[in-house]
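Anyone opening a protein record will find just a pair of labelled lines. A complete record is shown below as an example:
=====
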Amino acid sequence: MALQVTQETRLRAQTRLLHSQPGPGALLQASIDPIVSIATLAGAVSFFGGRFDGACLILALLVFALTFPGSLASEALDGRRSSAGELALDIATGWIAIVGLLVLLGWASRTLNVFDQRVLLAWALATPAMLFAAHQALPRLLPRLLAAEALRLRKTAVIAGANDLGRGLAARLRANALHGVRVTGFFDDRSATRISEKVLGPLGALADYVRAQRIDVIYIALPLASQPRILKLLEELRDTTASIYFVPDIFLFDLIQARVDTIGDIAVVAVCETPFYGFNGVVKRVSDFLLASAILLVISPLMLAIAIGVKLSSPGPVLFKQRRYGVDGRKIVVYKFRSMSVADDGEVVKQATKDDARVTRFGAFLRRTSLDELPQFINVLQGRMSVVGPRPHAVAHNELYRKLIRGYMIRHKVRPGITGLAQVHGYRGETETVEKMKARIEYDLAYLRNWSLLLDLQVILKTIVVVLKKQNAY
């Protein structure tokens, strides 16, 4: 089922942008993964009679850097919950990736022997179970904790503007107690006959109400066309201590990597930006280069054997070269082992289907096992592709789907990948309907919104599982 870009999706992005200073609920959600991981490490050290020394402290700092913010943070802001099976798989793949990276660092720095091996093994095995328990328990306990008025953790808020944007934001905040915000009502100048919500008063009465009721937060959800009213309202609110957030009506489409930035003393809002902006771009490129180099070194004998097999199985070149769209929509040439008797790269390219007569016998084996994709690690070294990212489509398919699917070309703000988030969620292989392609694109955009190095490692591990299951490979 295709994921839809809805008003709720836009409000989710707005809420994430507005809450750059997290409340107590969101902060605890973001911290729970590192807290549990480090606490389990301390427990393992204590159980075996050890001492939490400097080496353990350095390990704890590395774990914090790799696990903060935890996956519960994004679930809290999105208002979504994974099933127990999905949660277990996410935790397992994420933790395996972290442990693998830590082992690699320990091996490279020759510090593995500094630790008690029993402690490391117990910690590596116990942490996923503890994380699973925390993820299951905290979403049930935290709303009750935040709702306890005696603790004074929740902030009270009012919304200026009882329009669609204001009502949607209020519904979002009321539906998820983890935001730590209680909306008391709306203020609006329009007559009661034009407003479906019950309002507390006109905009002119907002400042007095905020002072009298000790309101903590004010959301201004007025249209940009109301600039004089907004300026007047802001002037009246200068005499209050409330935090003020402006919810502009420029969010007409789903936000990608939204953030507020400044150019000199002018504030600008990023509506659609690559996740690999600045230092993140360096991290992504370095990790791609190192991973691709290591993999190519290991699989070079296998690639030589496959090349001989392709040459002996059918006439034609060993490598299939096809034009694809790369980063920023620039055309690139992508390499694959040839698995068909033809090499289409024209204005019309037919996707491979089940029992496709064009696929050779040896090519069918390559496609089932995804071995035909291995030459793309050379594309990664060239800087044309990434190990993880939206899968590149043939130019002909791009020209077709960019006209049919809104936001299709946004996926090209990053380098295409050998594997991607869509492929590990069942959208691998043929997309015979527009709805399936829409679902694939939504996962591609979700990757752009939520990228992290840990997410890349999780996708790689899940790809191995998908390949072994041979899902949708033909």
In short: The chain is about 50% helix and 10% strand. The first strand starts at residue 155 and ends at 160. The CA atoms of residues 2 and 438 lie 6 Å apart. Residues 1-11, 17-22, 72-79 have pLDDT under 50 and may be disordered.
